[in-house]
Amino acid sequence: MLAQQLKTAAPKNPKPSFLIPCRSFTTSPSHPSQDSHLANLILKSDPQTLTQILHSPQIDWTSDLVDKTLKRLWNHGPKALQFFRILDHHPNYTHSCSSFDHAVDIAGRLRDYKSLWTLVARMRARRLGPGPRTFAIITERYVAAGKPDRAVKVFLSMHEHGCPQDLNSFNTILDVLCKAKRAEKAYNLFKVFRGRFKADCVSYNIIANGWCLIKRTPKALELLGEMVERGLDPSLTTFNIMLKGYFRAGQIKEAWEFFLQMKKRKCEIDVVTYTTLVHGFGVVGEIKKARKVFDEMVGEGVLPSVATYNALIQVLCKKDSVENAVVVFEEMVSKGYVPNVTTYNVFIRGLCHSGNMDRALEFMDRMKGDECDPNVQTYNVVIRYFCDAGEIEKALNVFEKMGCGDCLPNLDTYNVLISAMFVRKKPEDLLVAGKLLIEMVDRGFLPRRFTFNRVLDGLLLTGVSVPVEVSTLDVLLSPCVEDLPFGGSGGHSGALFEREIFLAPDLRPSQRAVKKQDWLNKDHLTILVEMKYHGERNLNKNNRL
Q: Mind telling me which PANTHER family this protein's record contains (predicted)?
């Protein structure tokens, strides 16, 4: 068992929170729950203890186990990178290309571009890449951060990193730009390089989809004309893109006429086409027509997919009644279809919206019975609706079950719960808010200034205090963490805070150590008050400058 294996790796007096029940890590590939146990261990351990545990010779690390653990920690960026860096110095394990790609993705999501490019350089030094997938991740993260020009520059510089551009990488950058609703920029890039990379049907479909995403269907049609002129035949995917574009733009009449033209031209209409129609008509409230299309689909011998049922269940929940959605759900199961997490999430959201919370919980239990574990979105929906209904205790119970299972809370989970703690204005609720804030920081999340100040003011009013773990301050003071709520003018606010409080220039090293230890001995309330005071002092100083 892991608990026995860790005995030799952990310190003599470990913190109770580090000792979690877990299976052995000595098998390969990993057991489905091993990554979950590892993720919880990483979140609860300080760097020193974690280093000793992760470097334990009893753990047989594999690329598969590391990748799964990084995926588990995707919403816990700083902790995920800490895990990756510690394991990068393991004497008997070397990260794979896929693990580096996961780490690059996490660094990009945190907008920690210095770490991102350091990882890329390390990949190249170890001859693990970077490859096309790495650059797809990097460009996507730059575009998501509102830096499309930087993403294009990265694409144009791929060859400098030993990864020459080709048609696939060209289509990837176009797709990244289009999905971020940067169709204009994608089209300009497309016009410049379509000759060099010999743009194919996929390239044109990507740009057409980009125009449709921003509801510019005439531009998409114009592009299809160009496509035909260049001797490329539109595919069924092309027609499905246009059909979806019409529905997205609210052009319901045009969408139906386009579908009839597809049938007239004897296009081989598939399940994607019918799913688009079901969803499109349902969204605008034409439930009868959506159901008619669904029945026609079955009559034509086209078997509905799980996605088709998901679309129908979603529109019934939103525009009709949950009871009718239940009928469709049970019909789906009786025909041998296996509901996926999207099916359950859509259905549970519908039940919550109709106020049927107990039934929503029953379906969460049913998910587990169907070996379809609830994800963070499932839990967040139920927690949010319980909070909105004033059922705070039930929301906390769901949150507790979440922590005991294989699903880790994310930033939204904590924000919803902390906000709910101020509704009843009870001292015990404000105390819970303070504990949630501490747990949130312990897990690598940083509250916004508003959330931080709100919790602090609540604790000041109640006069209560909560003991704070040393690891909490370690996270708050970490130089790799950005956007602290009590920082100065931006950047690495944790480092700024440490410089102002613990590394004061008027103190000798021995005095600084004593001062830091004094801080670590203070209770939670005192620390929060002094953090706020010094943070506002720094902010005012920067504003004066």
A: OS03G0856100 PROTEIN, PENTACOTRIPEPTIDE-REPEAT REGION OF PRORP DOMAIN-CONTAINING PROTEIN
Distances (CA, A) of 151 to 108, 123, 189, 410, 448: 12, 20, 12, 27, 28
CA-CA distances (angstroms) from residue 115 to 141, 144, 310? Answer: 13, 17, 40
Interatomic CA distance for residues 540 and 526, integer angstroms: 21
- The average confidence (pLDDT) of the chain is 80
353: exposed, middle or buried (Cβ count in 10 Å: 0-12, 13-18, 19+):
middle
- φ and ψ at 425, to 5 degrees? 60, 35
- 3-state secondary structure at position 88: helix
Q: Which of 529, 524, 531 is nearest to 442 (CA)?
A: 524
Contact 50, 9 (CB under 8 A): no
pTM over 0.85: no
How would you write 152-195 as a 3-class SS string?
HHHHHCHHHHCCCCCHHHHHHHHHHHHHCCCHHHHHHHHHHHHH
Signed CA dihedral, 19, 23, 26, 28: sign only? negative
Q: Give the chain's largest Cα–Cα span.
A: 85
Distance CA 28, CA 39 (A): 18
Contact residues for 540 (Cβ-Cβ < 8 A; gap 6+): none
- 423-445 pLDDT, tens per residue? 888 888 888 988 898 888 877 77
CB atoms within 10 A of CB 510: 8
pLDDT at residue 159 above 60?
yes
Question: 503: part of which helix (H) or strand (E)?
Answer: none
Q: Are 328 and 298 in contact (CB under 8 A)?
A: no
Assign domain 338-420 to its CATH architecture: Alpha Horseshoe (1.25)
Query: How far apart are alpha carbons 178 and 213 in whole angstroms?
Result: 8
Residues 121, 88: contact at Cβ < 8 Å? no
CB distance 1 to 24 below 8 Å: yes
Beta strands in 26-100, from DSSP E residues, in sequence order? none
Q: Which residues contact 412 (CB under 8 A, 6 or more apart)?
A: 376, 380
Give residue 173's pLDDT.
97
Residue corresponding to tokens 């594999």: 62
Distance CA 1, CA 25 (A): 8
Q: What are phi and psi of 409, to 5 degrees?
A: -65, 155
Q: Is 224 exposed, middle or buried (0-12, 13-18, 19+ CB in 10 A)?
A: buried
Please list, in sequence order, all residues whose beta carbon lies within 8 angstroms of the beta carbon of residue 348, skipping any fewer than 6 positions away.
Answer: 360, 363, 364, 378, 381, 382
Six-digit token pair at 452? 């931080």
DSSP 30: P
- CA-based nearest residue to 47, from 440, 408, 446, 479: 479
Q: Which long-range contacts (CB under 8 A, 24 or more apart) does 271-274 make?
A: 271/297, 271/302, 271/303, 271/304, 271/305, 271/307, 271/308, 272/236, 272/240, 273/236, 273/239, 273/240, 273/243, 274/302, 274/304, 274/308
What does the pLDDT look like over 444-471, one tens digit per residue?
A: 777 787 888 888 887 777 665 555 444 4
535, burial (CB in 10 Å: exposed 0-12, middle 13-18, buried 19+): buried
